[in-house]
Amino acid sequence: MTEITASATATGDTAGPGGATTGSGAARLQARDVTLAYDRRVIAENLAVDIPDRSFTVIVGPNACGKSTLLRALSRLLTPTSGQVVLDGKAIAGYAPKEAARIVGLLPQSSTAPDGITVSDLVSRGRYPHQGLFRQWTSADEQAVEQAMAATEVDALADRQVSELSGGQRQRVWAAMALAQQTPILLLDEPTTFLDIAHQIELLDLFARLHHDGTTVVAVLHELNQAARYATHLIAMKDGRVVAEGAPREIVTAELVEEVFGLACVVIPDPETGTPLVIPRASRD
Questions:
Q1: CATH of the domain at 203
Q2: CA separation (Å) from 61 to 10, 220, 245, 262?
Q3: Average pLDDT over the chain, rounded to an integer
Q4: Start and end of every ABC transporter domain (predicted)?
């Protein structure tokens, strides 16, 4: 089973989407000159990233450029071979697991639920870092789970087994678990996978509201126009390095898209939001 990183902010909670409580305490997350590798295969070297506090940061780039690998390092699932990930001025490796999980939550790219587990039980696992020797399940935990399920519209599925659900339904259940964590930093690895376009927008709108309420959101997205619409801070990666970063309106140009993705395009203002809208050039054939 994929490791569940789940938590709640220790102080300063505020009411978020659907009434759910969200972490409002400041928390700074950085990667300082990290080298990331799987076994001997190096994905990125001397990579430096500083996630702006309370931003909606989106990481984009072509397949296998290191986006998800960077997110795994930021979440403590992958230990850099050199350099370090720093959380609030302290190496994240120096935090106790539950301590780190009360600050940084993760919605992984793919997850496997235990056999026979129901939706409500899986979402409840998002409250794990709250539990301890002298602190067991409370009404606050119950409320957080109910509100997270309502916000992601899976409350009607509460008694269903996760294995019975469609891919899109399962993705929303995992998103509910991430919301129930109530961390001040939430990492999302391709959160819209398996979702139809309507549910993609609904989920991204939900994360945008979390960001508005004070949560630092960091997401890996494949859809560049969605990234440009929702991000307050955009990081463009290629071949394990950061090519450009900043506000989408400032960095998303036809030249950048061609450099990063090899796509000839034009970039125009989105008629709804004014954010950059990438239009691929028509084939000349």
A1: 3.40.50.300
A2: 34, 9, 12, 11
A3: 87
A4: 29-264
